[in-house]
Amino acid sequence: MGRNKMLLDVHGEPMVRRAVLVAHDAGCAPIVVVVGKDELEMREALRDLPVTVAVNADFTGPTSGSLHAGLDALDASVDATIVMLADMVRVTTPMVRALIDADAASDAPLGVSRYDDVLAPPLLFRRVLWPELMAWHGEGCGKAVVKAHHQEAVMHDWAASALRDVDTPDDYRELVTS
Prior knowledge:
- By secondary structure, this protein is of the alpha/beta class.
- It has a single domain, classed as Spore Coat Polysaccharide Biosynthesis Protein SpsA, Chain A.
- It has helices at residues 15-26, 39-45, 64-72, 93-104, 130-135, 143-149, 169-177; strands spanning 9-10, 13-14, 31-35, 51-55, 80-83, 110-115, 118-126, 154-158.
- The strands form 3 sheets. It has a 4-stranded mixed β-sheet, with helices on both faces.
- The longest helix has 12 residues, at 15-26.
- The chain is globular.
C-alpha cells in the first residue's frame, strides 16, 4: 500500500477512525483499538474518540497477537466483545448493531457474520469463549474458536460484497472511486 492502510482516507476519515465510528454508532462501549505500526499517527487519527488504545508490539506476527491485546485491555465488567477489522470498510453500523441485538435476545456464546459460505468479522464473542481465544494462536480473528462453536452461534447473513476488504492499492482505488 505504500503506507499504513489504517490511515488511508475513506470518505473523509482515516480508515481506522471510520471503523471506530461504525462501532460507536452501533452502541459498542468500551471500544478498544489495537495498533502496532505508526502508533503515534494512529492515536492522532483517534484523538477525540472514546477509545482505549492497546498496543500489539508484535504487529508483524499472527493476528492472534492483536486479538489477545484487545481482550487484555477489557476489564472484568465486559461480558462480550465484537471483533472488527478496520479494513473491512463495507461493514456498517446496522450490521454491528444486529450482532448486539441478537446477543441480547440469545444465550448463544457467539455471533457470526456469514457472507455466502464465508464466516468472517464482525464477530461477537461472549466472555465464556475468551479463554479459548487467548489460548489460540494464528491467523483469522479466532477462526478456530468460531469453527469449534459454529453450531451454537447466531448467524447473521450479509451480502457477499460486504466481505470485500482493502488489501491492495487496486482495492483502495476501487473503494474511493465508487
